[in-house]
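Incident review: delayed structure delivery

Summary: a single-chain prediction request sat in the queue longer than the usual turnaround. Root cause was a stuck worker, restarted by the on-call engineer. No data loss occurred. The affected request and its eventual output are reproduced below so the record is complete for anyone auditing the incident later.

Affected input:
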Amino acid sequence: MAPSQGPALADAIAAAEQAALGQAYRAFGDNANRTPCSVAALLKRIRKDGSLPRISPLVDAYNAVSVLYGVPVGGEEVDHYQVFRDF
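Output delivered after worker restart:
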């Protein structure tokens, strides 16, 4: 989204993108209302709390990109998985 776009246009774009993600969820049998995609959940938290949750620098960066572009983005911190500690 270009920085020059106003909030109303940005909200309209985000709503359209979330609707498309909801359709994708339904296509593979999930309920987007019961289990919203990560970006929808993040936007809901921002509207409620006024900021993104702080988790770790890596997760915070992924969350910021998700909100900025309106798409679910994520990654895994392999240090948190036992299987990788055994190697």
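Verification: The two ends are 42 Å apart (CA to CA).
Action items: add queue-age alerting; document worker restart procedure.
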